[in-house]
């Protein structure tokens, strides 16, 4: 019986087995079914068997599995769905179907992912023949489907609804979310975007758009449809469709289809035969965009490839390559970033062709990374501009334009249609080979070193070679000795002299006439024989330690760079052995006032044949009232400006000039020639400037009372006028017509064309521009009236109103509406060097000032805050690159450097800033992340310098992201957003309206040595030592001993000689000459005539620790400097007993009281300059108070003091200098 039952059950199982199989092939999966991640795990199949759902083992890691749906009948088992945002799971993980949906757990049972929100309603699941995996209720209602949760692929019958998206993978085998997105937008467009990181809210560049939106919403798109016939289209709300894919495609009945957003950003439609032999692979049918290399050109993100990489198209697919001199940051990701071999820096001070060279690459460009454009120019000037700019990494030349680029480079592309030439900058000797050479095996390298040593030994053994060595050594000794002989009148690149001691002995007649005694020596009167017979004061330092040469030169360096109206000028020095002398100019208390001769106009008109010569006679042509003068003003020694100025005020303010960019030398002449030409020529007869004449012949000229210089015909018709060619200033009655402009001066004292323009354009718009200095083209409009088509003329009337009018006289825009009558005030409107147009007034009479000082004062200005108006993508902004602009209490923009940066040109606050440290290396082996830290600056930003944006993130994440990125110079953190900025930074501003903070990345130890080439230099040094050593070892004993003996004798002899020094590198670019002791002895006639003397314990100048039982440090010099600075800004001595109030006897005490009580004007009662700029005075006062702190530990070091003076470091509120005494 049991045996019969056994056979019966076996028969039933055999009969029912096909039914079980059929149930599986119908795609229904019951609740409770599960899958395990192993090699032998069977997936859930679609009824046709075309698709499978389950775990697919990763190719590059056999222990990881990806939950996915794939084509099951083709060899590649191409994945068409995976759950975005989940990582591959380890071996042994499980997927279970229960009433709550799909549950994915790791081997330990921890939940990794689930289809949440289904409320225990799932009855079964199915994978249908379209590749869609569906969860259903018992009534067959769909609860969840893979088609509604796509990854990077869509299949026939699948749609993308509004707000739906596809996200690319990171790489072909890395299923993490990548940088590319395909989205159906609410406006009806299907677009492709990049996004830096998946967590960002905002997207970056849009590089494809279906153009299916419409102003009429009923006509716009709402759905991407991939229909059963394999056609991809955009469905519109009006029922129409816009076909995207090609119409001639193979039938879907014979081919599998898919459309995938590839990891490299191209959305591609593929087909694969259903019946095949071998492995035919997928064939592209359509792709969007057609050329991703050219389509991506946004200002955020790296582009189609990584940063610094170059993209070229092959078979509708981007191929990414690093340019020569760059290498992949991740060797396993060819689509990733490229790191440069050399990062430009401004620390070494080396630029130009002597230290750098350029590698030329054709048909290559990196759009959207330029910080400066030069147009027009030629290719040679483009090369030179990049070589001479320490911030320039790459230059692009195309169509007579040059773009200077900054790292990291983005959107790189190679295309023959570009017509561009790229110049990549490298340190000289570092340019890579055009054809990469085969690496040399290490044993071959050792053989080469052996050959070097053997060869040099053999060469050294030759007697003939030894004789050559002896001759070369003798020649070298001779040359070195010759260089130590001073040149008495040698003037280097400066105007200051390096005197010999003998010269100064002669000049002072043996130091005969003593003028006085100082703290460290005696001052003598001298006569320097330089052709001008200049009288000098020679200070002979007789109490200076002999082992402090470096300190002496450092002091001379500091004095030489100090210029102040209350300081005599240092014109030279002597540093010869034990003799150290300083040579100063002499300022006599009594000035001989020479009469200034002018050629008075006997006639109001200037007749033909008249002329003025540029010299010290100051000849002028005056207006009838004498209020304006035309003539030459000396701007720099030997340099004259042909100008018009206010003649009745002491400032002689210039309002027009002819040769602002080409000063005339002394002896130049302006002539009104007999034929009517009006020309300025130098002494050699070369033309510098000429009036552009058109019309009747000139009969005479006149300087009018309104400040207009005119050339007129015999009928008094104006042929030419200065009002028609303004420089930077408008006067009452002077219009600015269409096509006219004002160009700001370079600085307050440099009248050459500067960085800003105010233009009345021919299209009617009145615009403020930044200029592409020193070129003439404009960069960015930072203020405009928006009067295109209507603006005609700027009017400055006699009542002080300045406004823009239409051609019919209608006022379109009022620029300045503050009334100021020309009968009571001199007036001018000037576009100043800082880019602000200001209306100035100056009382004509002292009794009609209405409370205004007798001087120029600002009546109004535009724009109100230039710092926040600058947002151009190219150009530096209101200040220079890497600088930031802040509005002072006087409403003027102040340009400053962030901490760790210094001015490119110390004499030009708008020249920009350069980092005082070596930038972070991109070499992964160096791993310099830990060597950098941040300085925080609140309310500070550099707009339009960012290359990456992350949102939302926290501040710690932002800091670390910048530290880990060698290209990140500054990170801006604001409202949970992080922007990474690259060099050079532009449009910097610090303002209360700017939210968030700037994180300035600096090298922690503020190192200034470029460590990137140390290893190379050490290797070169070792090679040199090898050759030199082997040569000496291989030489004959006698000759080697002779060479060494000669060298030792020369060194010993040279050390015994009096030390006569040439100008040292300690004094780079300083206008100071190093005198010999003999020069100063002669100059002072043997130090005979004493000008004055001093004492080491001069009251008020010596730091208090000298008189206390305290250690002496370099901070004593800081104290003395602070006292000197205090005296300079207050125009009085520190100790002064002849004062009415005894509280004012000690300046250092009184100054702090005034600072604390906010009565600063008591200190500068008679100083108009300080009163005019009280904020600058207060800053200098605060610095001096820090320097004179009686507690040495509170005094800053001199480097910090210099940074505070430069403005690169904020000056904190100083404590009471006497607090140390009170505590003690």
UniProtKB/TrEMBL annotation:
<dbReference type="GO" id="GO:0004674">
    <property type="term" value="F:protein serine/threonine kinase activity"/>
</dbReference>
<keyword id="KW-0732">Signal</keyword>
<dbReference type="InterPro" id="IPR051343">
    <property type="entry name" value="G-type_lectin_kinases/EP1-like"/>
</dbReference>
<keyword id="KW-1015">Disulfide bond</keyword>
<keyword id="KW-0245">EGF-like domain</keyword>
<keyword id="KW-0547">Nucleotide-binding</keyword>
<dbReference type="InterPro" id="IPR017441">
    <property type="entry name" value="Protein_kinase_ATP_BS"/>
</dbReference>
<keyword id="KW-1133">Transmembrane helix</keyword>
<dbReference type="InterPro" id="IPR001480">
    <property type="entry name" value="Bulb-type_lectin_dom"/>
</dbReference>
<dbReference type="Pfam" id="PF07714">
    <property type="entry name" value="PK_Tyr_Ser-Thr"/>
</dbReference>
<dbReference type="Pfam" id="PF00069">
    <property type="entry name" value="Pkinase"/>
</dbReference>
<feature type="domain" description="Bulb-type lectin">
    <location>
        <begin position="603"/>
        <end position="724"/>
    </location>
</feature>
<dbReference type="GO" id="GO:0005524">
    <property type="term" value="F:ATP binding"/>
</dbReference>
<keyword id="KW-0808">Transferase</keyword>
<keyword id="KW-0325">Glycoprotein</keyword>
<dbReference type="GO" id="GO:0016020">
    <property type="term" value="C:membrane"/>
</dbReference>
<protein>
    <recommendedName>
        <fullName>non-specific serine/threonine protein kinase</fullName>
        <ecNumber>2.7.11.1</ecNumber>
    </recommendedName>
</protein>
<feature type="domain" description="Bulb-type lectin">
    <location>
        <begin position="30"/>
        <end position="148"/>
    </location>
</feature>
<keyword id="KW-0723">Serine/threonine-protein kinase</keyword>
<dbReference type="InterPro" id="IPR001245">
    <property type="entry name" value="Ser-Thr/Tyr_kinase_cat_dom"/>
</dbReference>
<keyword id="KW-0812">Transmembrane</keyword>
<feature type="binding site">
    <location>
        <position position="540"/>
    </location>
    <ligand>
        <name>ATP</name>
    </ligand>
</feature>
<dbReference type="InterPro" id="IPR020635">
    <property type="entry name" value="Tyr_kinase_cat_dom"/>
</dbReference>
<feature type="transmembrane region" description="Helical">
    <location>
        <begin position="451"/>
        <end position="481"/>
    </location>
</feature>
<keyword id="KW-0067">ATP-binding</keyword>
<keyword id="KW-0675">Receptor</keyword>
<keyword id="KW-0418">Kinase</keyword>
<dbReference type="Pfam" id="PF01453">
    <property type="entry name" value="B_lectin"/>
</dbReference>
<feature type="transmembrane region" description="Helical">
    <location>
        <begin position="581"/>
        <end position="600"/>
    </location>
</feature>
<dbReference type="InterPro" id="IPR011009">
    <property type="entry name" value="Kinase-like_dom_sf"/>
</dbReference>
<feature type="transmembrane region" description="Helical">
    <location>
        <begin position="1025"/>
        <end position="1053"/>
    </location>
</feature>
<dbReference type="InterPro" id="IPR000719">
    <property type="entry name" value="Prot_kinase_dom"/>
</dbReference>
<feature type="signal peptide">
    <location>
        <begin position="1"/>
        <end position="23"/>
    </location>
</feature>
<dbReference type="InterPro" id="IPR036426">
    <property type="entry name" value="Bulb-type_lectin_dom_sf"/>
</dbReference>
<keyword id="KW-0472">Membrane</keyword>
